[in-house]
């Protein structure tokens, strides 16, 4: 049972690949809280087909878009405004992919063409989404834009490779574009820095299982789940957080403030 926190709001959710995806859970919660949404993902992700299940369940339409393509994004925003009957109130960017990680290249031997693709998909796409929406005047006053990040933007996690720089860039885009959006229409832009979560993108990082257990012990509240992340995103899309902008918000059970966990030393 929801609380009607997003009653009457219209949203676009990027990145629901399967039921483990954080975006999948955010989509479910947004609808539970009264929003109407359009789901979008890269055309290749459509082939897996699972997103159709979610769309049926949530009575939502799907508009495929490669988030690196300006043409796809323009089509996405114009179709979404038509489907939803007006401008958009909230957007979730939940997109990440590293070619070098996928191809198991060491950080000291990265392929720079692949790195460019990684940055384009994982970070520049966020700027592209915002620029397209800005130029099309597609977001309502007091709207909210959120992207998902990870603490490797600030600290070194050796196996996270070039995704660390992608997240640093992503968070910087939130601050820089956040200024322009605030001035244009009181729209806020934030990143949520989420705990390690068992998803397709998460499990692609080497040693993820062990690291998940380590973070669980390091965080006094334990790792934040995908469901909890969805709750937090709902709060950021709701009218209760209208003055929060240009922030990177840690949603990590306390991990980011810890220096030492006695539990880990005992082990
Ligand atoms: N899983 C974790 O441990 C964790 C922790 C912190 C932050 N995050 C971030 O959360 C976000 C969502 O990841 P997830 O863990 O739910 O994994 P996921 O694999 O379910 O989601 C990643 C999504 O990105 C989409 N995508 C890839 N290339 C795209 C493109 N060109 N255009 C449009 N979409 C594209 C994929 O299809 C997929 O739906 C990512 O930004 C990820 O970095 C994940």
Description:
The protein is an alpha/beta fold. The protein has a single domain, classed as NAD(P)-binding Rossmann-like Domain (Rossmann fold, 3-Layer(aba) Sandwich). It is 46% helix and 15% strand. A seven-stranded parallel sheet has the order 3-2-1-4-5-6-7, with helices on both faces. α1 packs across α10 and α6 packs parallel to α7. Nicotinamide-adenine-dinucleotide binds next to α1, β5 and α8.
Widest β-sheet, arrangement of strands: 3-2-1-4-5-6-7
Helix/strand-derived class? alpha/beta
Total helix count? 11
- Largest sheet at a glance? 7 strands, parallel
Q: Structurally, how many domains make up the residues?
A: 1
What's the Cα radius of gyration? 18 Å
Termini gap = 41 Å
What are the salient characteristics of this protein?
267 residues, 7 strands, seven-stranded parallel sheet, globular, Rossmann fold, binds nicotinamide-adenine-dinucleotide, alpha/beta
List the helices and strands and how they pair.
Elements: E1 10-14, H1 22-32, E2 36-40, H2 43-46, H3 50-58, E3 61-62, H4 70-84, E4 88-93, H5 99-102, H6 112-135, E5 139-149, H7 163-185, E6 188-194, H8 200-203, H9 208-218, H10 226-237, E7 247-251, H11 262-266
Parallel strand pairs: 1-2, 1-4, 2-3, 4-5, 5-6, 6-7
Helix pairs in contact: 1-10, 4-6, 6-7
